[in-house]
Amino acid sequence: MFIVLLCLKITAGAMPAGKRDSVITMPFGENNMIVYSLTTGTYDVVFSGKKTIAGAFAVCSGKTEMTSAGAALRTHSFSTRTIHDRVSRYIIETVRNGLRMQQVFDVYGSRNYFLTTMRVIGRGAAASYMSPLTTDSVVVDEKGDNRALSVPFDNDMWARFNAQPIQHANFTSSEVTAIYNNDTYKGLIIGSVDQQVWKSGITVKANGVNSFSISAFGGFADSTITHDKIRHGLVTTTDTSCVSPMMMVGMFTDWRKGMEQYARDNHSRAQGIFNWKKATPVGWNSWGAIQNKITLDKAKRVIDFFADSCKGYRSANGQLYIDLDSFWDNMVKGGLDGDVSELKQFVAYCKSKGFKPGIYWAPFTDWGKHDRKMEGSAYTYAQAWLKQNGKPVEVDGALALDATHPGTKARINYYLTHLKNLGFEMIKIDFLGHGALECDRFYDPAITTGMQAYKVGMQCVTKALDNKMLVYAAISPTMATAPYVHMRRIACDAFSAIDNTEYTLNSTGYGWWQSLLYNFVDADHVVFNHESEGANRARLASALVTGTLIAGDDFSSYGPWSNAAKHLLQNKELLKVIKDGRSFRPIEANTGNKGVELFIKADYDKVYLAAFNYSNTPRTYTLSPARLGVLSRAQVTAAELLSGTVENWQQDSIHINVPPSDAKIYLIRPARTK
Asked: What whole-number distance in Å separates Cα of residue 70 and Cα of residue 57?
């Protein structure tokens, strides 16, 4: 490895009057650079020859307040080294009040983004807030519809993404944001690439029509967004060192590709414990309709429905998961150490039909909310309750457990070992955000933040499961869950109504990139119930554009949902849509906090296009082939998969008519010539 070291020490107060600032230039990508002033301790970022970020600086607060900027006497040093032939690392060090602040910039020769972090070294370095990028001057002057995207911390309590006009922006996005132009797709992406220590936030506040301030920081704690009623915990890497989260900062010609690159970078850095090699999972879950009325008899009749009446509903390798959600303990007497014969019967019956049995559990919650012995341990629940301001924390009706407590760990091992030994091959784990809450004081004194505790808890879950099940996360932190599960719900608690589909596709439309962070994301229960044919088509289509398919009706009894399932779930062309397990991209990402209406996915020689109408009146969408980004100006043939009809689209424009509360999915191929 070739390494170049260059050190330059400058005392700002000793510089001759009138002398130019000492400037460090860090080029990256195509005509981009970071320009750092050693005199002011601030930096600008130039993308494609245009200054976009000006006067940015680093700041931290905790036991000690410190910033890279300001006129106070300080000493700067600068070093650079080549990490490998495509990445160079620049380190700017500021010394102030006995502490050293290092700003680190990793720049890529071939990529239009860089990574930045900061470290504070010295006694009293512990911090609860660290920002390697804070500025009051970011300018995005693209003409047209400029948007700023707010991303929720998790998928709980019907949280929504919000792509608001940039001139109205005033929010803190969790982990990542995109500032983009919906007309040209050009966009700035800023987000954390490590969630093992910090909860990160990106604060965006408009200063004018095209100007705004940004702070990308670790230390995000909010009573609504992260469900924390106390500030973020102090972070210390060692007794005398504290490191911020690393932030990705880049400008992309297509912000959608930028978000996908962001997801890939997170995925590669997390070195996920799981990597699903089998076909895209499909299945059924009991919470969609049966809910707390689940019994062995009903579960068997559901299995019979899929075995006898819905034989075409299978994954590409012929598998189907039958998942018992909450209240599976209706089949148990005396706990998992008691009579579990009905669970054994369910597992055996499921496997006898060639299906995969699934189960449900929440590792970090106490639903009983009273003190008693914890299963599998010598501790009581009260000893393991997580506390904020001296009080147990209740979220979603359940008390949170300290994920670092030995009682919590023993309970996790107890439940998961029993469920694994019973023969379950899939598990839906839920309410995971309870394990990521900040705490007055964790049982493990080495753990000081919710994200550190979450890592401990999820590693305990992973060890207990021993790679024996398909692991499926429901309510959970968006970014930090990825290393520990195969599959995650894009949005939770969606059922049959058209507004549930709209809610789901707000998350898919602006969070589709998560299908590159996880092996799969899905659209929650696909429930048909008594809805119209159009609403059922839309609900199914919402799952197909998200990437997987989990049915949810009560198939233990006969109703209109039964025929809907037979018709829709066995359509081979529709099932091919999810073969790659990838979500569709948004075409128009300008719907604010509402569901995206138009989606696209290119797959080698074919293109899928989906259109949704959430309203009670007909809609016509008009698109140019160029807007799709993948079609030539020649005529194309579009097969509408939900109806089986075929349309020929001309070169000038495409008109898609969608009835009220309905959807269409097209398979597009170039028209054949004679």
From this structure: 10
By the 10 Å C-beta count (0-12 exposed, 13-18 middle, 19+ buried), 378 is classed as exposed
Q: What's the token pair of residue 55?
A: 């006067």
Query: Which pLDDT belongs to residue 272?
Result: 66
Structure tokens at 139: 């300018």
Token pair for 380: 């009581």
Cα–Cα distance, 259 to 279 (Å, whole number): 25
**Token output for 657:** 């008519």
Q: Report pLDDT for 10.
A: 33
Query: Are the C-beta atoms of 299 and 346 separated by less than 8 Å?
Result: yes
Helix 560-568 / helix 533-546 crossing angle, nearest 10 deg: 50
Helix axes 450-465, 406-421, angle to 10 degrees: 30
Is the pTM for the entire model greater than 0.90? yes
> What are the structure tokens assigned to 469, written together?
């099940």
Assign residue 234 a region: left if phi > 0, alpha if psi is -120 to 50, beta otherwise?
beta
Spatial distance between the Cα atoms of 38 and 6, rounded to a whole number of angstroms: 14
Question: CA–CA distance from 175 to each of 198, 203, 568 (Å)?
Answer: 10, 10, 37
**Around Cβ 524, how many Cβ atoms within 10 Å?**
27
* 435, 401 Cβ separation under 8 angstroms: yes
Closest to 149 (Cα-Cα) out of 590, 521, 473, 452: 590
Residues 99/65, Cβ–Cβ less than 8 Å? no
* Nearest alpha-carbon partner for 194 in 135, 235, 147: 235
Q: What is the mean pLDDT of each run of 10 residues along the chain (674 residues)?
A: 32 35 90 94 96 97 89 61 78 88 94 96 93 96 94 97 96 98 97 97 92 97 97 90 97 98 91 83 98 98 98 97 98 97 98 98 98 97 98 98 98 98 98 98 97 98 96 98 96 96 98 96 96 98 98 98 98 96 97 98 88 98 84 76 90 89 92 46
Asked if 296 contacts 322 with a C-beta cutoff of 8 angstroms, the reply is no
Distance CA 415, CA 313 (A): 31
CA distance 88 to 241: 23
What was the pLDDT predicted at 12? 34
The DSSP call for residue 445 is: T
The DSSP-derived string for 572-614 is HHHHHHTTT-PPPEES----BTSPP-EEEEEETTEEEEEEEE-
Single-letter amino acid, residue 324:
L
Phi-psi region of 92 (alpha: psi -120 to 50; beta: other; left: phi over 0): beta
State residue 531's pLDDT score: 97
